[in-house]
## 1
Amino acid sequence: MAAQTIAEAAVYEGLEAIAFPFFGAERRGAPIMAFARIDDKKIALRTQVYQPDMVVVMEESLIEIEPVADGLKPTGCAVVNSRSRPEEIDLGIKVRCATVDATSISLELLKAPIVNTAILGAMTRVDDFVSLRSVKEAIANRFGEHLGEEAGRINAQAAQMAYDKVVLGESQAHRPIAKRKMWLPTWQEMPAGVALYHERRGEIEVGPGSSWQTRTGTWRTRTPRYLRDKCVRCARCWFICPDAAIHRQADDHIDIDYDHCKGCGICATVCPTKAIEMAKGAKL
């Protein structure tokens, strides 16, 4: 909810934003992560954030068991729910750090240790990528929609209180940061399966992403335009398209199936010669 709300606040200010969670074991108390990307231009990247500009730690004890600062840029910052001062927080990297006792604020206002709205106020104090006003509006809208207008107002108040009580400083860098083993493939190393074609199985037509009979291209707000003269026929776009909406011709040029292209823009992002450009609107 916090990631979705900060993304919504960014949209209020005319920015592009996406947010999504990442769950491990589904049990109460298990560590989870959520990611948000904010930019002033179209966002085509859909992976996890591996080099964040800001890390937000809602439970201080996670610092002892998770490499929370792994990948954090040296120019980035951290926001930690803690009663300690920033210089008492050891993240394993020396960066701008802010602490706030979001738990106490939540207990006082919400009568429950649910800190996601309070921490949003602290985030805007550390970095003004979105304004506190927009964050409070997004909280009132998102939480009010689910829990009622009064709950939206109180949660927005929690963000304001956290904003006012933030302590700014710099973290310690004594703790070794354990590096997780991970595979970050290039497009050539992607597993097979993303470039499948549709087929008929009995009386049912099937295809990647959704039922082939459903024209999901109506969801599109931006449309890829293919510039044939610039194409070097590398087929990256065909390989990476998540909806199999790009088809290769006999000469390795491409056709785009606009009935099923959702306009995600990944094809334009991976094209090395800019032979695909994204145009505004659902049609060319």
## 2
Amino acid sequence: MWLAIAGLGINWFGDSLDGTVARVRHQQRPRYGFYVDHLIDCLGASFVFGGLALSGYMSPLIAMSLLVAYLLLSIEVYLATYCLTVCRLSFWGLGPTELRLLLIAGTLALFSDPTVQLVGHRHRLFDVGGIVAIMCIGVTFIISSVRNVRVLYQAERISAVTTEEVP
């Protein structure tokens, strides 16, 4: 578990450092950087959720469902970035750094008790956290998708076609 925490710290450091170094050196490559950064984010998430699925601290079904939810929201963000030229990485005040901190806090909590009591039953801490995360990501996906569809619809309204114009 300490290795997982160290891995999250290294991931955060590398994710934060690459863009900063490019800006300081005045060697920015926005499209390349965007592509590589988000490709690595998706690979990293696959490894994190795959590791959770294999760890015994989260059921494989919940881990893979969480990965699917994460990737759906990622796709929505990437499509919005392309179509609306607005890249939004944080929702509801939570971004990648806060999510890493939540994972670290959860991992530290495993040392004392890997389960939580809910409705008279004991459940794995990461299963409960995973289900909450899936629901939050799902709501965020729906709200963001509807908002972006509405903006794109308004931006590309189709004018009324009269019957005279139709061949």
## 3
Amino acid sequence: MHLGPDISDPAAPAISFDQFLAVDIRIGTIVKAETFPEARRPAYKLSIDFGPTLGTKRSSAQITAHYTAEELVGRQVAAVVNFPPRQIGKLMSKVLTVGFPDQNGTVVLFSPDRPVPNGARLF
């Protein structure tokens, strides 16, 4: 089950470059991943290191279909770091980890194809 737009949806309405820059998407390394049994749908609780400026932030991610908790640790992922915190069950999520839906609509994480410094910003 995916939560966002489908590949058959038309492109979103045009936005300005300044609107794009308002969304702060950064790279971080997952330093801890654990099951999230309180979540309504299968999910992990992630601790993601975004480097010395932003530090480590928590996130919930419905990515159990493709990833084990053990293989997530050490993986770099992209996340929106400037959304307001959101309460998800007993977890206060501070960032939105991003991905794309596969052919079945389950989330595949978005990661750089080469290591980059934690905290690097998408542009």
## 4
Amino acid sequence: MITLYGVYRSRATRPLWALHETGMAFHLVPVLQAYRVTGANAGWTGLTTASPEFLAINPQSQIPALTDGDAVLTESLAITLYIARKSGGALGPASDLETALMEQWALFAVSSVETPALEIHYTVAEGRSTTLEGTALLAVAAEKLRRPMGRLQAWLSVHDYLVGDRFTAADINTAECIRYAQGHPTLLPEFPAVAAWLQRCQNRPSFQTMWAARDVEPA
């Protein structure tokens, strides 16, 4: 059985969404980011990313991580693709070309989308979006995203999903990176096909299940 290490308030949302989508049995071992053992999490007594037991699985001290028999994976996008392939269902690739396309979209998401999208997320989450500095940060991050968002807009204007005209792991990985930019007040409306696709993805029961579990975790 797959064992996933992490918490819902992390990049573990990607493989957790995939696991809920497939219905595969899995064991979740809660591992909290060490820097979060404060505030609402001050009483945390479980594993953290600094625990020796977890460092034996991922010496890089990051979540999520996955074990499946002798297999160990430590990157969220690769873990999600692994789950999709292992499930043998529609979430995974149906051909070598689809495998390459899913890998392409994962690399696109992490290299072109995630960093500026996270800049937006943290600026909004920290309450800085209305300050002079925060407004400037949002503008710079949004500009970095306009080219990749434009690429997605062109594709999603004529396709419902990213690969094979069905919902796949490619949509999970990309949507979870785009999600970080949802707090920007005007960016997504510039790309209506992307916004509609993101809403379709997030309306799925598997996302709703994952998000409900995330919501009950202490921030």
